[in-house]
Specification:
Strand order of the largest sheet: 1-3-4-5-6
CATH class of the largest domain: Alpha Beta
Number of domains: 5
CATH topology of the largest domain: Rossmann fold
Number of helices: 23
Radius of gyration: 47 Å
CATH architecture of the largest domain: 3-Layer(aba) Sandwich
Length: 635
């Protein structure tokens, strides 16, 4: 017969083996901690936190594997088992003698109930125990235990002082959390405040300390050291509770302020609406759109569509998705400058001055632009022409477009077509799509706020194409004078008149421009600059620009005409002037270094200095060769 089987003998035999007397309480009666307890008990593992003496709390465990343990426990007259802390409990996964702690808490079981796959009972903490010997190492676990007596049982002055300190800490905790008061009521029903050991265990149990700290309290038999540990835990609990209270008060204060502001704002809205001083969001939106349309010459078909959308907006709830879509549509359609134009300036003399002020050279291009302006002045309006400026990089195509706008007194808008792959960028998205927007042309009209700006379509020879459409084909309607007075944007779904817009396009070459698109534009070639023109551009535009960028005054750094000419012929022979500008920037930066080093207060750049700053020239003059077999070619 094993010891486990012997433990399941009738209750009389168990009482004799355990040495308990006839005064053992009935199973349903409350037992005081100092009453005799069995020396062989079953163990139940709990994973949350250790159970301490002086606690009375409900405990929930899984039916598997503890059902057999409770069936055997029911056959005893004590109904006492041991609760032992094990955060990594897995039945049968390892040897319990090596994983379980040595100390636990003996508890009496009350009101055992089954709930689904769980067992719930009320555990009444009695005494701490220490495992002496394992009888059964498989569930149900059966062990032989001993109940160590508290040392320092005599109430010395030091113990009384610690007890008073613990009671004072509990008093401070009571106002911070009402749960502490409920726990204290259960404790006072079972123990006297003059019992230091249960008081210490109770104080540790009501804290939210880490499970490891509570296990240390459970394993500390020496009363004075246990009281020291618990007093430290209580002080930490007080700090946490006070901090939680401060956070809760701050949150409540902020929430209260926001609620107060919200109620006051809502009341103010209602009062203003009753007095006619304010309107709701929907009414304010509609009136804002109507205010935008005042003074605009909206076409009949557009006016009808806007009125229909206004009526639709008035019936929709502000929280519905359709309300946002309709509001965004009205926001865009009322932002179009219907019928708003700027007066063109047809002063050819002023136009010539503007072109000369912005550009040196390019006389043939300036003459062609003046002819274009002269025809518009004679006719009374400039419309129906699409200019295409073709030339190598750096010859000033984009800046010429800005000069045309300045000469005419028109607003200027530029966007690049380089790499554009989606035709919706030109003609807009359908309103049904998420994140739909009008095309670039409608966005340009909204920004410039007039119907007749100068719009520059840069890099028209670099348009891409993809599965999303061909932007070059979408431009056919835009750049055709016979069609663009009825341009249809997919988002607005309204006809727009783009015939008053002056389109200026730029390209580096004509080979990649589709033929149908090229036919709709009038090409103006910018071949490049000769040396004298580059010299004038460098003196009047590029050199002052570099000095300003570096923060220098004109007297601090000067360059001679001979040095400029040497720079142009030896380092920058390309058609444009971008490389020339880069070389001038290098010279200015090196001059700034000399000024900061204190070597001089003024830098003067001559021919020799150019080679010092930039190194050997990239191009040198070749002597003419007239021998037989030599051919001079131009590529």
């Amino acid at each position: 017969m094993t010891e486990a089987d012997e433990f399941e003998q009738p209750n009389e035999v168990i009482s004799e083996q355990n040495g308990s007397d006839a005064t053992e309480p009935q199973p349903n009666a409350l037992a005081l901690p100092d009453q005799a307890l069995p020396d062989k008990i079953y163990l139940i593992q709990v994973g949350n936190r250790p159970f301490l003496p002086a606690q009375v709390q409900p405990v929930i465990v899984d039916e598997t594997p503890w059902a057999r343990t409770f069936r055997r426990l029911a056959k005893t007259e004590h109904h006492v088992c041991g609760l032992i802390w094990d955060p990594d409990f897995q039945p049968g996964a390892s040897d319990p003698t090596t994983t379980l702690p040595e100390f636990g808490c003996a508890v009496r079981i009350h009101h055992l109930q089954k709930d689904d796959e769980h067992l719930q009972f009320i555990a009444q903490g009695l005494r701490r125990f220490r495992i002496k010997r394992w009888i059964s190492k498989e569930p149900p676990y059966l062990v032989q235990v001993e109940y160590p007596q508290d040392t320092d049982d005599e109430a010395t002055d030091e113990i009384r002082a610690y007890a008073m300190a613990i009671i004072d800490a509990i008093k401070e905790l009571l106002p911070l959390n009402p749960l502490y008061g409920e726990e204290l009521k259960h404790y006072l029903k079972r123990f006297s405040p003059n019992q230091p050991s249960p008081l210490t265990d109770f104080a540790a149990a009501i804290t939210t300390a880490e499970a490891g700290d509570l296990q240390e309290v459970l394993e500390t038999v020496h009363l004075l050291r246990r009281m020291e540990r618990v007093l430290t835990l209580l002080h930490k609990e007080l700090q946490v509770a006070r901090l939680q209270g401060e956070i809760r008060e701050e949150v409540n204060r902020k929430v209260g302020e926001h609620q107060r502001e919200f109620f006051l704002r809502e009341q103010l809205k209602v009062i203003q609406q009753e007095l006619g001083l304010a309107k709701d969001d929907r009414t304010a939106d509609i009136e804002g759109f109507e205010q935008r349309l005042k003074g605009l010459d909206v076409p009949v078909h557009a006016q009808q569509r806007i009125e229909d959308e206004m009526k639709k907006l008035a019936m929709l709830e502000t929280g519905s998705p359709e309300y946002g879509v309709t509001r965004n549509y009205l926001d865009w359609v009322t932002s179009v400058p219907w019928g708003v134009h700027t007066d063109d300036s047809f002063d050819l003399h002023e136009a010539r001055q503007v072109l000369d002020r912005h550009h040196d050279g390019l006389e043939d291009v300036k003459d062609r632009i003046l002819e274009f302006l002269a025809v518009g002045a004679y006719k009374g309006e400039i419309a129906g022409s699409i200019l295409l400026l073709v030339g190598p990089p750096g010859v000033g195509k984009t800046s010429i477009g800005q000069s045309i706008a300045d000469a005419l007194g028109r607003k200027f808008y530029r966007f690049s077509l380089g790499g554009m792959r989606d035709e919706a960028e030109i003609k807009g998205h359908r309103r049904t799509y998420i994140g739909a927007m009008p095309g670039k042309l409608v966005q340009a009209l909204k920004e410039v706020e007039v119907e007749n700006p100068v719009i520059m379509l840069d890099e028209i020879d670099k348009i891409g194409a993809s599965y999303q459409g061909d932007p070059a084909s979408a431009l056919l309607e835009v750049l055709d004078p016979e069609q663009n007075h009825q341009f249809l944007d997919h988002y607005l779904d309204l006809r727009l008149d783009l015939s008053k817009v002056l389109f200026v396009c730029t390209a580096n070459q004509l080979d990649t421009i589709p033929g149908p698109l090229l036919d709709r534009m009038e090409s103006i070639r910018l071949a490049g600059y000769i040396t004298d023109e580059k010299l004038a551009i460098a003196k009047h535009h590029l050199w002052p620009k570099q000095l300003k960028r570096a923060g220098l005054k004109s007297g601090q750094c000067k360059i001679t005409d001979a040095a400029l000419k040497h720079l142009i012929e030896g380092y920058a022979r390309e058609a444009g002037v971008r490389n020339l500008e880069k070389q001038l920037g290098r010279i200015v930066r090196k001059a700034v270094v000399q000024l900061l080093e204190g070597a001089t207060t003024q830098v003067r750049v001559g021919i020799k200095d150019v080679e010092t700053y930039l190194g050997a020239p990239l191009f040198r003059k070749d002597k003419p060769q007239r021998e037989v077999g030599v051919i001079t070619g131009l590529a």
